User: What shape does this take?
Amino acid sequence: GESVGLHLPTLSVQEGDNSIINCAYSNSASDYFIWYKQESGKGPQFIIDIRSNMDKRQGQRVTVLLNKTVKHLSLQIAATQPGDSAVYFCAEQGAQKLVFGQGTRLTINP
Amino acid sequence: DGGITQSPKYLFRKEGQNVTLSCEQNLNHDAMYWYRQDPGQGLRLIYYSQIVNDFQKGDIAEGYSVSREKKESFPLTVTSAQKNPTAFYLCASRPSGGSQPQHFGDGTRLSIL
Assistant: This one.
């Protein structure tokens, strides 16, 4: 079956540094991936997505990289700010449902 | 503003009681979803609906029921058969077709009295 996993449950970075959150997926037929940010007590918020015909996509301060060879994607956050503290989920959009990873909690140190 | 509204934000259930969680969207999305999130965990799919008057079981449908009588509404009932209902419940919606992300409401936290 499909599964999406994250390499690290927690990540702590200094304010102003870049953050990299990794995710592995198992279904080589997957063609659409999404990163979400979830703050405490709130629903997941869409950050950025990428289709399998792309290797990289950039947004405002965020970049998603997709490596189909090793079935890995990453979320890079530039110049991490206190407001970036949250749990980050990668998700794979299958034919009918999203498959979520367990999430990585990002903590920002002042 | 367009969005997804879940209510109530907090809900308490007594033993043997059914409770219904509301989810309304004004995004004109065809598909709607219900997820359960336990502390420190990812999201697990309970039920989903891709069109009015039709819905399918997700990965953990036992003890739950849904209806989809209107495009904008997808209520979830947590029945007494669900023995461990304490969790954070999230509703989502997305347009049908193509690669489109799901958009989420801000959840309902259900606890047992």
